[in-house]
Specification:
The mean pLDDT is about 80. About 15% of the residues lie in helices and about 20% in strands. Strands 1-2-3 form a 3-stranded antiparallel β-sheet. It has about 80 residues and is an alpha+beta fold.
Length: about 80
């Protein structure tokens, strides 16, 4: 997080972790919980989507948007 983006209550997490597909459900639960804490700036105007960041699988070049929609993680295929 750049210093100019910090404000009271703001935080950011950057991590590198290989997630096995068998663990997507458990990881999705964590992401859904994090989405409940997200500020309005991360919510899509329709109120259904919370944009949490980006995910990139090791064989892919470009990251894809990491979204929680209606309380469930949406995994890019």
């Amino acid at each position: 997080m750049r210093r100019q983006d910090t404000r009271n209550g703001a935080w950011a997490l950057t991590t590198r972790q290989e997630i096995h597909r068998d663990d997507f459900d458990r990881t999705g639960e964590l992401l859904s919980w994090i989405a409940t804490k997200a500020a309005d700036a991360h919510r899509h105007f329709d109120g259904r989507d919370v944009h949490l960041g980006w995910i990139r699988f090791c064989e892919e070049v470009q990251p894809k948007l990491l979204v929680v929609r209606d309380g469930a993680a949406v995994w890019p295929l």
